[in-house]
Amino acid sequence: MVITYIQGVIISFGVAHVCxxxxxxxxxxxxxxxxxxxxxxxxxxFNEGLTWKLDMLKIELLGMISASVLWFFLTAIYSKQxxxxxxxxxx
Length: 91
Description:
The protein is mostly helical. It has helices spanning about 1-20, 25-45, 50-80, 85-90. The protein has one domain. The relative contact order is 0.13. The model has no long low-confidence stretch (mean pLDDT about 85).
């Protein structure tokens, strides 16, 4: 099961690298955040120590929160609705 997450991390960072080279930074940043999410989970499975698990949970949570926020902006940009997003409408 951990091998699947490691493959996901490699694919996510690979997609981010390709997107960044093709100047698709929005999708690249989204791929980085999903890679961080998967990496935190995969690294959390390698050790039994509570301190290690909590540290990896923080990394996983960082990727999870950033992925959900970035997904909103990514869909707004690709659907050409990003001009309608204001501070008032996003809250």
